[in-house]
């Protein structure tokens, strides 16, 4: 088992990464301060892992009382309406302020459970048990929690850190291929923005990751969590460097939104968005051509899209990008690659002709 620390002062926590961790009850139990636990999961994950998670919590005569609530599966259910079921269950079960909410699932369940825990009786203990690559390398680490609003994705939420993140890589064996690739897109992102050694390792080991080799997967997740932990501990509330985690995301969000959420997976849109960010960086003369081509090649090998969806227009991009959270005083700030492989900048200070050319080229 590997352990990555997320250093956040008195809110610091460990991430445990390894095989079979879901069966090592003590790992979870040591982070449950009270006697009552609520596992939050969904209809897809519950039949696969709920009973194992419950057994882990009650093993060795722990005496823990475990409740569970099973939500419908899908981004469209990441709403305040559906979240209400978590609080209903907690109140019906008379869970008190020393209870622990455990998120068992992908990023949707993690984000919802974290927000439910942050608000229930003004804050109860929270544990993440991520079961998708996306959740293991990105959403379970860093404390962003929340739900969607009909007028915008992730618009209602809170920063709320878990007590522990337990990553059992064996749970990835049941994950659909597209979901696997979507999460790998964020791993490639860490390589491009700040970890050239990880990028080179991915170039050498992509096939092992796609084959779900447990050792390779654990390594890639560990490196990703180390990168995310470093960024988050330097800038917990996204005043600066945390924004660099959004490489490719501004272009990607426009692709997700223009098709309607759920057509492309998040990591798929980020992949095509990353290619656009690299293209723009190249046009600005900020990177060597080899950096852009290596990024595109690696994303292709991960079976991710490297072009926007067919039919998307420049106007689509412009209108969706204009509402991006990174617009400040009318300037669209972007994360762009700059310098040798593994370096990026977050800036609104670039020649707009490069953005025009990138959009023009992407939608041809
Ligand atoms: P998801 O939670 O929808 O999971 C993807 C699919 O895989 C779902 O159908 C799920 O039921 C299924 N699934 C989960 N684990 C499985 C397993 N082990 N075996 C089989 N099927 C399994 O999607 P996701 O990609 O994990 O997360 C996306 C969400 O995360 C978005 O809502 C996004 O906003 C959020 N997110 C948050 C952050 C953050 O910092 N908080 C970062 C990135 C993404
Ligand atoms: Mg992302």
Secondary structure topology:
Blueprint: E1 2-6, E2 13-18, H1 25-29, E3 36-42, H2 46-58, E4 65-71, H3 80-92, E5 100-105, H4 107-119, E6 125-130, H5 133-139, E7 144-149, E8 152-159, E9 164-168, H6 177-194, H7 196-210, H8 214-234, H9 249-259, H10 266-283, H11 289-301, H12 314-322, E10 327-328, E11 331-332, E12 334-337, E13 344-347, H13 352-362
Parallel strand pairs: 2-9, 3-4, 3-5, 5-6, 6-9
Antiparallel strand pairs: 1-2, 7-8, 10-11, 12-13
Helix pairs in contact: 5-6, 5-8, 6-7, 6-8, 6-10, 7-8, 9-10, 9-12, 10-11, 10-13
Bound molecules: nicotinamide-adenine-dinucleotide and magnesium ion.
Magnesium ion is lined by residues 138, 186, 249, 266, 270.
Helix content: 40-55%
Order of helices and strands: EEHEHEHEHEHEEEHHHHHHHEEEEH
Low-confidence stretches: none
Report the major sheet: 7 strands, mixed
Please report the number of helical segments: 13
The main sheet orders its strands as: 1-2-9-6-5-3-4
So what's the overall shape?
A: globular
> Roughly what is the average pLDDT, rounded to an integer?
96
- As a whole number of angstroms, the C-alpha radius of gyration is 20 Å
Strand content: 15-25%
What's the oligomerization state?
single chain
| Termini separation | 48 Å
Bound molecules: nicotinamide-adenine-dinucleotide, magnesium ion
Category by helix and strand content: alpha/beta
**Record field, number of beta strands:** 13
């Amino acid at each position: 088992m590997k352990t990555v620390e997320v250093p956040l002062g008195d809110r610091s926590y460990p991430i445990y990464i390894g095989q079979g961790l879901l069966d090592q009850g003590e790992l979870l139990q040591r982070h449950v301060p009270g006697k009552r636990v609520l596992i939050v999961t969904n209809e897809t994950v519950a039949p696969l892992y709920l009973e194992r998670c419950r057994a882990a919590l009650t093993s060795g005569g722990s005496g823990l009382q475990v409740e569970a609530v099973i939500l419908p599966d899908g981004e469209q259910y990441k709403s305040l309406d559906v979240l209400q079921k978590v609080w209903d269950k907690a109140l019906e079960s008379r869970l008190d302020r020393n209870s622990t909410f455990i998120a068992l699932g992908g990023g949707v369940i993690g984000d919802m459970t974290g927000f439910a825990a942050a608000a229930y009786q003004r804050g109860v203990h929270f544990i993440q048990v991520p079961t998708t690559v996306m959740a293991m390398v990105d959403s379970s680490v860093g404390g962003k929690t929340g739900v969607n609003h009909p007028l915008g994705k992730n618009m209602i939420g809170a920063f709320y850190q878990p007590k522990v993140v337990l990553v059992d890589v064996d749970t990835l064996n049941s994950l659909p291929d597209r979901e696997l690739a979507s999460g790998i897109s964020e791993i490639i992102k860490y390589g491009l923005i700040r970890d050239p050694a990880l990028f080179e390792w991915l170039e050498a080991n992509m096939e092992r990751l796609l084959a779900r080799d447990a050792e390779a997967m654990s390594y890639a997740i560990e490196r990703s969590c180390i990168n995310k932990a470093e960024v988050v501990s330097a800038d917990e509330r996204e005043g600066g460097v945390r924004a660099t985690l959004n490489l490719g995301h501004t272009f990607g969000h426009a692709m997700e939104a223009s098709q309607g959420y759920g057509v492309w997976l998040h990591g798929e849109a980020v992949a095509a968005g990353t290619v656009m960010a690299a293209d723009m960086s190249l046009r600005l003369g900020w990177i060597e051509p080899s950096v852009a081509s290596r990024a595109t090649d690696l994303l292709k090998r991960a079976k991710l899209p490297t072009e926007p969806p067919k039919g998307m227009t420049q106007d689509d991009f412009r209108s969706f990008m204009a509402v991006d959270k990174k617009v400040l005083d009318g300037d669209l700030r972007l994360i762009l690659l700059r310098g040798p492989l593994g370096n990026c900048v977050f800036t609104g200070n670039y020649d707009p002709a490069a953005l025009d050319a990138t959009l023009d080229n992407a939608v041809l």
